[in-house]
């Protein structure tokens, strides 16, 4: 497969020794998101400094099994916004849907989910949380699916209970 090549590279990556060390540590740590590791590898391969490899975009795309556009965007972000911006994924302000739970609302949801359940209930369910966040004016509206995704993202214990994983299974027949 022949990848398209830009005629002139507009964004040349030159990393300092500290930045290279930070990217290598990020790759070797093994607990970072895959997207972050990919971008770190892209930047290390694209580095045109004396310590860098200075690979072409086509060679990087082939070696890392990614698109040239991803490589170009990563280069651009590094040059224009810095290393942190190139590595982190930001929420697009132009996306079609606005986030229902911002940081403060998310914190209130987690606090609510960790609080004692309503009287007559053994635990919070996603449906109960759905009605409670609206009644408490945390958000205007939210589905139980959105609440479940938000709690899953924060690794709340409620999500592991809501899918039945903490329930006891009956013993197999003898």
Architecture overview:
With 174 residues, this protein is mainly α. The protein has 2 domains: 17-87; 103-162. Helices cover 52% and strands 0% of the residues. The chain is built from 9 helices and no strands. The chain has helices at residues 17-29, 34-46, 57-64, 68-81, 83-87, 103-114, 126-135, 144-153, 157-162. The radius of gyration is 23 Å and the shape is elongated.
Q: Which descriptors would you attach to this protein?
A:
174 residues; 2 domains; 52% helix
Radius of gyration: 23 Å
Q: Helical residue percent? A: 40-55%
Number of E-state strands: 0
Strand content: under 5%
Number of domains: 2
String of helices and strands? HHHHHHHHH
Largest sheet: none
Unreliable residue stretches? 162-167
Distinct helical segment count: 9
Furnish the topology, listing elements before pairings:
Elements: H1 17-29, H2 34-46, H3 57-64, H4 68-81, H5 83-87, H6 103-114, H7 126-135, H8 144-153, H9 157-162
Summarize the structure.
The chain has 174 residues and is mainly α. The chain has helices at 17-29, 34-46, 57-64, 68-81, 83-87, 103-114, 126-135, 144-153, 157-162. It is 52% helix and 0% strand.
